[in-house]
Amino acid sequence: MDTVGNISPQDYDRFKLFLEQACGILLGEGKQYLITSRLTKLLRDENIPSVSALLQAIEMRQPRHLRDAVIDAMTTNETSWFRDQSPFEILAKEVFPEMDSIGKRQCRIWSSACSSGQEPYTISIALSEYMAKVSASGLVNAQIVATDISMSMLATAKQAEYDEGVLGRGLTAERKQQFFKPIGDRWRVADDIVRRVSFNEQNLLSTYGALGKFDIIFCRNVLIYFSAERKADILNRMALALNPDGYLFLGASETINGYTDAFEMIRSPHGVFYRLKSKP
Ligand SMILES: C[S@@+](CC[C@H](N)C(=O)[O-])C[C@H]1O[C@@H](n2cnc3c(N)ncnc32)[C@H](O)[C@@H]1O
Question: Which top CATH class is 86-276?
Answer without folding.
Answer: alpha beta
